[in-house]
Amino acid sequence: GEDVEQSLFLSVREGDSSVINCTYTDSSSTYLYWYKQEPGAGLQLLTYIFSNMDMKQDQRLTVLLNKKDKHLSLRIADTQTGDSAIYFCAESASSASKIIFGSGTRLSIRP
Amino acid sequence: DTGVSQDPRHKITKRGQNVTFRCDPISEHNRLYWYRQTLGQGPEFLTYFQNEAQLEKSRLLSDRFSAERPKGSFSTLEIQRTEQGDSAMYLCASRGGDRTGNEQFFGPGTRLTVL
Questions:
Q1: Which of A81, B70, B89, B101 is disulfide-compatible with B37, CB 3.0–4.6 A?
Q2: Longest Cα–Cα distance in chain A
C-alpha cells in the first residue's frame, strides 16, 4: 500500500542546517513533495522532485532522493526562526493524482 | 484571484447534525481535491473532481459523506449525521491542467468541531 513515514520532531540551533528525513513505500511514486505548514496557515508547497532525479536545490533548500531505498530528505541551510513549522513529506503517482502525506515533522529552532 | 477559498472557516455542530462546506478553487482550475487533516496527522485524501466528474473516492469517504461539483467550478462537501470522529480540518485544493504546472494549491481549510 501507500505509506509515507517521517520522524515527528526535530530541534536545531539557529544558523545550523536542518535535515528532515522521509521514507515512502509506493514504488510507482513519480512526484515527491515537501510542504510547509505554519500555525493557522495553509499548506505551502516548498519544493518537489521527480522520481528520475537525485537532487534538487532551491536557494536554502536541498532535496535528496534515493529511489532504491525510497528515502527522501530535505535540508534547510542556515535555519532561521521563520523556518519553525511542520514539514510534510508527500508523494503522488502523477501530477494530477491524489497526494499521500506523511504525518509531518515539527521543526523547532533554539537560539 | 487570490487563491483557493473555503467557507466557513470554522464550524461547531452537535452530533447528529448535517454540515456542508464550500470550496471555491482558483479560476479555471479544472481539478479539485478534498482532504481531511486530524490533529497531529498529515492530510488524508477524500475525493477528487476533474471538472464536474468525481473521479476518485477514498475509503475514508463513508456513505455519510457526499461531495459535488455541479458546474465544474465550486464544490461542496456534506457530512450527514455528524459524529465526534468527524472533527477535523477539511482542506480543499485545486490544480490547473497539465500545462499549468504540478502544484495543488491548498485553501485555508474548514475546521469542524462536533460536540
A1: B89
A2: 41
The answer to whether the CB of A50 falls within 8 A of the CB of A67 is no
CB-based burial, A63-102: b 16+ in 10 Å, e otherwise: bbbeeeebebbbbbeebeeebebbbbbbbbbebbbbbbbb
- Tell me which amino acid residue B102 is: N
Using CB atoms, pick whichever of A4, A43, A104 lies closest to residue B106: A43
Disruptive mutation site among B31, B106, B111 for chain A (greatest number of A CBs within 10 Å): B106
Phi, psi of A28 (to 5 degrees): -90, 5
**pLDDT digits 0-9 by tens, B6-52:** 999 999 999 999 999 999 999 888 999 999 999 989 999 999 999 99
Does residue B64 contact residue B85 with C-beta atoms inside 8 Å? no
Residues of chain A in Cβ contact (below 8 Å) with chain B: 4, 31, 41-45, 48, 88, 90, 95-96, 98-104
Cβ within 8 Å of residue A35, ≥6 positions away: A43, A44, A45, A46, A87, A88, A90, A101
Which residue from A minimizes the CA distance to B95? A96
Give how far A80 is from chain B: nearest CA, Å: 23
pLDDT digits (tens, 9 = 90+) for A4-48: 999 999 999 999 999 999 999 988 888 999 999 998 788 999 999
